[in-house]
Specification:
Blueprint lengths: L2 H28 L4 H13 L19 H27 L4 H26 L10 H23 L7
Helix pairs in contact: 1-5, 2-3, 2-5, 3-4, 4-5
């Protein structure tokens, strides 16, 4: 099996495992919480996206991987992490702009993720030596995708949430 096939198989497996876990355990529990508390819990996944900065560390990843891809992914993730943290503060503080900020943050993060996916496919990223960054793509990114979907779902169905 090629490294590209293994890469995508691991991503799909992670999506399946996280999806089942979310559907059976996480989502039913979050639905019993107030909407803002549930959003805070889901946003914590995105605060950890600062780990994407590893793409800029010399010798941690194949130097043949284009700088434009590495910079875009790393700084996009860092911005998402900072925005997610701001959302958590705003939600905990009960700020009026908290929900619009969550919309902006989740949209930014999801578009950044789609942009990264486009780059992964165009460059066939698994053919490069990703070092430990392999786990960001095959383990953490699927969790981030699922969290984005759950946040959008929560924002769109706000009337059914506990207050």
């Amino acid at each position: 099996m090629t490294s590209t096939a293994i890469f995508w198989l691991q991503i799909l497996t992670s999506i399946m495992v996280f999806g089942v876990t979310a559907a059976w355990y996480v989502w039913p529990r979050l639905r019993t919480w107030p909407r803002n508390s549930a959003l805070i819990a889901m946003l914590y996944v995105h605060v950890l996206r600062y780990v994407g900065m590893v793409l800029l560390v010399p010798y941690m990843i194949d130097p043949r991987l284009p700088e434009s891809f590495r910079s875009s992914a790393a700084y996009g993730d860092l911005i998402e992490a900072a925005l997610a943290f701001c959302c958590i503060v705003a939600l905990r503080g009960g700020w009026r702009l908290a929900i619009p900020l969550v919309w902006v943050t989740n949209t930014w993060g999801f578009v950044d993720l789609l942009n990264g996916l486009r780059g992964v496919i165009q460059l066939n990223v698994p053919r490069f030596d990703l070092g430990t960054s392999w786990y960001i793509y095959t383990f953490f990114a699927p969790l981030v995708v699922l969290s984005h979907i759950m946040i959008f779902w929560t924002l769109l169905s706000r009337k059914s949430w506990k207050s």
